Structures are given as structure tokens and as C-alpha cells.
Amino acid sequence: MIRFITAGESHGKCLTGILEGLPAGLPVSAEAIDLQLRRRQVGYGRGGRMRIERDEIEITAGVRHGRTLGGPVSFVIQNRDWSHWRIAMSVEPVEEDANVRPITRPRPGHVDLAGALKYGTYDSRDVLERASARETAARVAGGSFCRVLLEAFGIRIGSHVVAIGTEHVSGEYENLEPGKIMEIDPFSPMRCADAAAESRMKALIDRAKEMGDTIGGVAEIVASPVPPGLGSHTQWDRRLDGRIALCMMSIPAAKAVEIGSGIEASASFGSAVHDEIFYDRERRRFFRETNRAGGIEAGISNGGDIRVRLYVKPIPTLRKPLRSVDLRTKEPFEAAFERSDTCVVPAAAVIGEAMLALALAEAFMEKFGGDSIAETRSNFEQYLRSLEQY
Ligand code: EPS
């Protein structure tokens, strides 16, 4: 069973992750994880913080001589910015310090008010540090181990940005083949294959920045090829689409998730939605001509590519702030501004890839099991043979 948790505050010393359930003998390297961490950082519309951080993983347990041991893998990612926050984020109690002022003007849309009420604090920093999307660096690291596992079985994951605000891709780019999505430069700042849309998207992000505003958008994340049979219809919490949706909705600023053509399907007749089934006698396999289901039927992968769209809201830290109320005085004020990003959609695409890898690795290990990679492979290959004989 794969389990993954993270710890760490945005301006604390470091982020920590523990990933349990990878089989023993999987070749892993810090370089492969660092490459994914770098991809998360280069998105167009990121703020000053990304010029400070250069995320690198230090693997602290669970790997020996370049291979997993089968026990929990743990790792840390240092926060370079911590050097400026040693007092504000000190673990030890600190003397009164003029530079450590409580944050009492909650930003609409962020954790500041809901978290302060829930945890009984009058300093929103107590909750915003953990809610910060900085934590997603640890998710990308954890998800990247899962990606390495899936890649060992030929499953690849990629993403592209399909909309920023009102600007979106069109024509062939609306339903881009996974192969083409995976060809996008891994470090592309916009992650958009449609060059004309890309320049309009960049212009919109620039405009939002000039206005002291922020902007959201939509990223599509795909996995291909995916064997049929991951997830299960037998219990609500085993359904693969539900598990993917949880992984996606847990990404900060995510506000909706679509599997396949789910949104369009809700406005169509059934005959225009479901993917008809055909059989190729020569190759002895079932096939479809469409994939509106996004590769999942009744909570089970059906052998088609998995396609997920992640809808990201404009982030709530605005240079031109919205109205709010002071936590202590209850007087109206403009919300606090902290240095932040203008647009996080390209980064969210990379985080979505990591979260899809986590959901699929979990379902993959549930189906194929095995304590060593050799055992997992033998179970996997036997299943593929049984499909050929079906
Ligand atoms: C974030 C605010 C910004 C982002 C941060 C998420 O950080 P800072 O307040 O230090 O400028 O850059 O994201 C990251 C640090 C990251 O690594 O993704 C927020 O408030 O959520």
C-alpha cells in the first residue's frame, strides 16, 4: 500500500516527505527527482520567491546504492529563504520583535480566516505557512518516485496548459494526443503546445501582473498507456476517478476536476457521450475510436489514456488587495499583501502530474503488489498475458 505524507512550512527550515510502499529494487536517483522539482519552479507568472529557491532533494532513508529498499523513503528539501525567516519562523520561543508582526488582515480566498478560526489564533501566519503552495515541492518529489515506478512499467505522465483566464488553446490542441503532450519541452515556462494561444496567455499574465491582480486557468494531465483494471467499482473509496479527483482537488488553488469530457458530457445525450466498443480479431483486442470517458469507466481504468483537467483559481494574494476585516479590532481593512505569484497554472500542471502519479502508483501496487520490483513485474506480466488470452 502506498502512503505519502509531507511536513514543512513555507518559510520554515525545510520540507520533509515520507513515501511508503514502493517495492524494493527500484532504481531511483536524486537527479531524476530534481529535474521534476525544477520543472515545477519555472512556470511563467511565478514571483520573486522562485528566484531565491533552487529546489533539490536530499534522500535520507529507504534507498541504498541507488535502489529502493522496500521500506519508507524519506527526504528533505531545504527552503533557502529560511535564512531570512529564522526569527519569524523560529522553533524556539522568541523575544518580542518588531519584525515579527502578527498577520491579522485575512486575504479572501486564502486559509487566513478559516484557519485562524479553526485553530484559535489571531496570527494568520500560524496557518498560512503550512497552507502555502510551497508544500507542493514535497508533493512533486514524492510523486516523482511514483512516476519512476510507473515508468518502469511503461506508463508515462505528461501535462499541458489548455487555458489561462479567457485565453485557451483551439483546434487540434484541444484534444492533444498524449505523445504530443509528452514532447513539450519539460522546462517550457507556459507548457502550452499551441504557440498562438501561448503568446496570448503570456500577455494576459503580464496584464494581470501590471494590474496587481492574479489569474487562473486549466491544465490537462494525461497518463499513457495505462493497463485496464486499476481501481475498482466495488467500493466508493476504491474508484480510480474518485481517488484521482481527491489527489487533484488537494492541490492548493484547485477548484474543479474533470475526467475526460465530463463537463461537456453533462450537457449532452448519452449516445454522444459513451465510447463505443469494437474488437480487432487479428490483434485479439478490444478498442475504442473515442475516449470521452478519459480512460476510466465505473471507477476502473479501461485501457484508454487517462485524461484529467485541473481547474485552478487565481491565487488569493493580490497586490491590489480586496476588502477584509482585522481579526482583532474587527475594523474593515484591505487584506495583507505578501510577495507572491501572478499565475500558478503551469506549476499546477507539473504538480498535477505528480499527484496523478501518486494515485496511479497506489492503484498499480494495489493491483499488482509485490515486495520487490521483480515480483511486481512478474505479477504485471502474468496479468498482461491473461488479457491476451481473454
Ligand atoms: C505562496 C506564496 C509565495 C509562493 C509560494 C506559495 O511564496 P512567498 O510568500 O515566499 O513569496 O512563491 O510558493 C512557493 C514558495 C513554492 O515553492 O511553490 C503562498 O502563499 O501559497
Low-confidence stretches: none
Ligand kinds: ligand EPS
Number of domains: 1
Structural class of the helix and strand makeup? alpha+beta
The H-level CATH homologous superfamily, spelled out, is Chorismate synthase AroC
End-to-end gap: 28 Å
Which whole number gives the mean pLDDT?
96
Give the strand order, joined by hyphens, for the main sheet: 8-7-9-15-10
Strand content: 15-25%
Rg over alpha carbons? 22 Å
Please count the beta strands (DSSP E, at least 2 residues each): 17
Q: Tell me the name of the CATH class.
A: Alpha Beta
Q: Which outline best applies?
A: globular
Number of helices: 11
Helix content: 25-40%
CATH topology: Chorismate synthase, AroC fold
Query: What is the N-to-C order of secondary-structure elements (H for helix, E for strand)?
Result: EEHHEEEEHHHEEHHEHEHEEEEEEEHH
Largest sheet: 5 strands, antiparallel
| Second CATH tier, the architecture | 4-Layer Sandwich
